[in-house]
């Protein structure tokens, strides 16, 4: 069964399925608010529980004021338990230390609790305060674990990172730990493409921050990636989506299994998927109208 797309509130990526893990690099505080506010507004409209872990320089008072302006009934929704705002340091660092396993377990429990209360799922966002701290390596591991944790859960996460303190190597590691990466700089949107591991680190910044080459939405980007598959890759792609094994594909197309493996790897790389479930999600996004939910 194809995944149902949910409105992200972000015009650049449109509708996305549960299990989506996106990172956003932002230039200014206004860029952060311009992304996060519609993200949460769409979540509340979709009957999702929302959680925002606030980190400096943004304060809880400033965040509440912005939410009230963007969402007229925010105070009512907050009082009903639909929306929770908490300090990032308090949320991520218990007693001054970070416990990766406990954090991942907490996310799973929060999602299950939200569904049990009648919400469609959990939508969350957190601003990274640890880029310039001793906790960076811990949180880099955490992002990778979180990506796996939410894959099969009714959960959607937008992780936000300030560009001002993000070194190119940090950007590289963060993008690798997320399904999609965006940048918002003084009101303009960009996609961030991940370079191959073999690229020298000194070239990462030039390789990473790229625009979408005139394409307006993630739907168009993925649709173009799929359209650029060779005829043979397209055949393998369609059979993989049908759940066929390499052996079955080889028999059906009259080619060797090694050849199937080569084409399959090329498809995954071109489309930008790291697993078959992710390939299915991306295909759904690429074949759906922008902004669909």
Provide structural commentary.
The chain is of the alpha/beta class and 293 residues long. It has helices at residues 29-45, 60-70, 74-79, 88-92, 100-116, 136-149, 168-176, 204-208, 218-227, 231-241, 246-253, 257-271, 276-286; strands at 6-7, 15-16, 21-26, 49-54, 83-87, 122-127, 155-162, 180-185, 188-191. 35% of the residues are buried.
Key words describing this protein structure:
293 residues; alpha/beta; 2 domains; 13 helices; elongated
Topology of this protein?
Layout: E1 6-7, E2 15-16, E3 21-26, H1 29-45, E4 49-54, H2 60-70, H3 74-79, E5 83-87, H4 88-92, H5 100-116, E6 122-127, H6 136-149, E7 155-162, H7 168-176, E8 180-185, E9 188-191, H8 204-208, H9 218-227, H10 231-241, H11 246-253, H12 257-271, H13 276-286
Parallel strand pairs: 3-7, 3-8, 4-5, 4-6, 6-7
Antiparallel strand pairs: 1-2, 8-9
- As residue ranges, the low-confidence spans are 195-213
Instruction: Give the class-level CATH name of the largest domain.
Output: Alpha Beta
Question: Biggest sheet, strands in spatial order?
Answer: 5-4-6-7-3-8-9
* CATH architecture term of the largest domain: 3-Layer(aba) Sandwich
Spatial shape: elongated
What is the tally of beta strands? Answer: 9
Calculate the mean pLDDT score and round it: 81
Number of helices: 13
Oligomeric nature of the chains:
single chain
Whole-number count of domains:
2
What radius of gyration results from the CA coordinates?
A: 20 Å
CATH fold topology of the largest domain: Rossmann fold
The proportion of strand residues reads 15-25%
């Amino acid at each position: 069964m194809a995944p149902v797309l949910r409105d992200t509130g972000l015009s650049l990526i449109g509708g996305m399925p549960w299990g989506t893990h996106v990172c956003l690099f932002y230039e200014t505080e206004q860029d952060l608010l311009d992304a996060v506010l519609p993200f949460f507004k769409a979540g509340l409209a979709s009957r999702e529980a929302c959680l925002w872990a606030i980190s400096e320089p943004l304060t809880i008072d400033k965040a509440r004021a912005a939410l009230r302006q963007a969402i007229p009934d925010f105070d009512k929704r907050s009082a009903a338990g639909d929306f929770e705002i908490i300090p990032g340091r308090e949320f991520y660092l218990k007693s001054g230390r970070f416990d990766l396993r406990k954090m991942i377990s907490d996310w799973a429990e929060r999602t299950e609790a939200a569904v049990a209360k009648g919400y469609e799922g959990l939508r969350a966002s957190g601003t990274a305060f640890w880029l310039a701290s001793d906790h960076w390596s811990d949180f880099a591991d955490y992002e990778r674990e979180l990506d796996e944790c939410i894959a099969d859960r009714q959960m959607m996460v937008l992780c936000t990172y300030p560009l001002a303190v993000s070194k190119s190597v940090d950007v590289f590691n963060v993008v690798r730990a997320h399904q999609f990466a965006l940048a918002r700089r003084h009101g303009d949107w960009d996609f961030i493409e991940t370079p191959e591991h073999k690229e020298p680190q000194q070239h990462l910044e030039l390789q990473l921050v790229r625009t979408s080459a005139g394409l307006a939405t993630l739907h168009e980007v993925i649709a173009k990636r799929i359209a650029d598959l060779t005829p043979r890759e397209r055949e393998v792609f369609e059979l993989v989506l049908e759940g066929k094994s390499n052996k079955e594909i080889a028999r059906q197309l009259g080619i060797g299994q090694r050849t199937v493996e080569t084409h399959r790897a090329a498809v995954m790389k071109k489309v930008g998927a790291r697993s078959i479930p992710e390939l299915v999600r991306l295909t759904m996004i690429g074949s759906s109208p922008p902004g669909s939910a």
